[in-house]
Amino acid sequence: MSLSISQLIEITCSKCNTIFQSEVWFVVDILEQPDLVDLIVHGDINLFKCPKCNFQKNIESPLILYRPDSLPKLILSVRGTQLSGDEQELIEAIIDQLKNKMRDGWNDDWLGEMPVVEMNLLPMLLTKGFGAVQLEYMKRNFVGPMDGAPKLIFEILENLPTEEKESFVAGLSKVNNSDEFLEYLNKFPKINQVIDSEIERSILEITHKLGPLADKAAELFRSYQGTKDTNALSQAISAWADVVTHPLFGNLSSDEKAYMLNDAGVALRSRFDEFNEVEDLYQSIKLFENGVDLSTEESTVFSALFSNLGPALFERFKIGGKKDDLDRAITTLNKAVELAGSIKLENISLLINLGVCLSDRFDYFGQKDDLIASIQNYKMAEKVLPMDHVYYPAILCNLGSSLMRQVETEKEPHVLNEAISYLQRADELTPQGSSFLGEVLLNLGLGYSIRFELLELVKE
Q1: Fold (CATH) for 198-341
Q2: Partners of residue 64 on adjacent β-strands
Q3: Which stretches of the chain score pLDDT less than 70?
Q4: Of 420, 417, 409, 413, which is closest to residue 367 (Cα–Cα)?
Q5: According to the model, what pLDDT value does residue 234 have?
Q6: pLDDT tens by residue, 279-288
Q7: How high is the pLDDT of residue 147?
Q8: Which of the residues 58, 75, 276, 326 could staple to 317 if both were Cys, CB 3.0 to 4.6 A apart?
Q9: 328-353: per-residue pLDDT in tens?
Q10: pLDDT at residue 460, as a whole number
Q11: 3-state helix/strand/coil string of the chain
Q12: Whole-number pLDDT of residue 110
C-alpha cells in the first residue's frame, strides 16, 4: 500500500483568474510511486497548469519523502530557508495524517532524525543519494578556499558508490575542524588510502606538467627584463596563459595560484607599457583581482597584488575616466602602504603612485583632503629617497606642484614659500630635456608671480 498523501485544492490562475482544482502532493512514498519520483527529479511535482490559458507554476508546499528502505526514513523538503507559522502547522498536520495511515508501522524517532533539504536538491538526493546532498551542504559551509587538497577530497567523496558515500557522510555532522576530519578519516582506511594516493598522484602530475610551464614563463619574463626583448615578453605571456588555463591549475593551492596570477598580470602590464594595448591592461587587472580574491594577508604575495593592482586601476581611469577606477586605485594603494608597514627604498613607488592618484582626484573632483594627503605622501617619499636617486627631482616637482595647488585655494604665504623652495630644488636637479622640466619652470614662475602679488616684493 502506498503511503503517499495528496489533496485536491482550489487554485485561481494568476494570469487569467480562472478557478480550477489541482492535486497537491504532501507525502511521496518513493518505493511505491516511481511516477512521482520522476516528477520530482524533473522539477514537475506539484506543477499546476491552467486549463484556460495553459499558464504553469509550481505550488510552493512542503513535501515529505518516505524512504522505507533507507535512512533517514523521512526527509522534509521546503522551497525557502525558513518555515512560516502556517507552514509549520501544515507540516504537523501532514505528519499526523502519515501517522494515522501507517498505524503500528510508525516510529516517533523518525521525526528527530528527519533532515530538511532544499527543494532544488531533491533531484540530487533521488538520483545520487542522501550522502550527495550532505556533501553539497558541506561544500557550501566549507571554510577556506575550495581548491587543492580540499577540492580533490570532495571530488573523491562525490564519486564513491552511494552506500559507501552515505556511510562515510553519516558521521560527519560531529566533525568540527580539519584535525577531527583527519581522525574521522582514519575510520575508513579504504577511502583514506584512495585520498592519499590521489593527492600524491596530483602533486606528481603538477610537478611534472605544470611546474615546467611556470618555470618557462618566469624565465622568459626575466629574459625580457634583462634585454627588453619584446618577443621574449610575448612568449612569456603566452606561457603564463598556458599555465593559468591548464586543467591542473585548479588543483594548486590558493597561494600558489595567486603567485602565478600576479606574475602573469605583471607580464601583461609590462606589454601594455610597451605597446599601449588596452586589452593587456584590462586582462592584467582581472588577473590581479583574481589573485587578491584567492590570497590572504598572511600570504607574501598579498601585498604585491595590491601594489600592482592600484597603478593598473589608475591607468584604466586615465583611459576611461571612470571615478570608480580612481577611487579603487586609491583604496588599493592605501592598503598596499598599510601592508608594507615601513616604507623603504624598494617600495617607495607605493607612496609616489598614491600621491599621484590623490593629486589627480583633487584635480578632477576638488576634494581638498586628497590634496593634503597627496602632499603628505610626497613628503614621506622625499625623506626616504636619496638626493641622487633618479626619482628625486620628480618627487620635488610633484611636491612643489601640489603645494602650488594648495596656494591657489588658500593663498597662505608660508605654503607658497615652501612650494617655491621645492620647485627651486627641482629646477637645480632636473636634467635638461626632462619631460617634467616644463612643469617645474611653469609652477616656479607662477609661484614667483603670486608671491610678488601677496608680498609686493619688487625684486621678484
Answers
A1: 1.25.40
A2: 27, 76
A3: 80-83, 141-150, 172-178, 203, 455-460
A4: 409
A5: 96
A6: 999 999 999 9
A7: 55
A8: 326
A9: 999 999 999 999 887 787 788 999 99
A10: 43
A11: CCCCEEEEEEEECCCCCCEEEEEEEEEEECCCCHHHHHHHHCCCCCEEECCCCCCEEECCCCEEEECCCCCCCEEEEECCCCCCHHHHHHHHHHHHHHHHHHHHHCCCHHHHHCCEEEHHHHHHHHHHCHHHHHHHHHHHHCCCCCCHHHHHHHHHHHCCCHHHHHHHHHCHHHCCCHHHHHHHHCCCHHHHHHHHHHHHHHHHHHHHHHHHHHHHHHHHHHHHHHHCCHHHHHHHHHHHHHHHCCCCHHHCCHHHHHHHHHHHHHHHHHHHHHHCCHHHHHHHHHHHHHHHHHCCCCCCHHHHHHHHHHHHHHHHHHHHCCHHHHHHHHHHHHHHHHHHCCCCHHHHHHHHHHHHHHHHHHHHHCCHHHHHHHHHHHHHHHHHCCCCCCCHHHHHHHHHHHHHHHHHHHCCHHHHHHHHHHHHHHHHHCCCCCCCHHHHHHHHHHHHHHHHHHHCCCCC
A12: 93
Which ranges constitute the DSSP H helices of 171-229?
Answer: 178-185, 189-205, 211-227
Residues recorded for the chain? 460
Q: Which three cell numbers stand for residue 236?
A: 612569456
Say if residue 212 is preceded by a cis peptide, omega within 30 of 0: no
Q: Where are the domains of the chain?
A: 1-127, 129-187, 198-341
C-alpha cell at 425: 630644488
Q: Is the pTM here over 0.90, yes or no?
A: no
169, with CB counted inside 10 A (0-12, 13-18, 19+), is buried
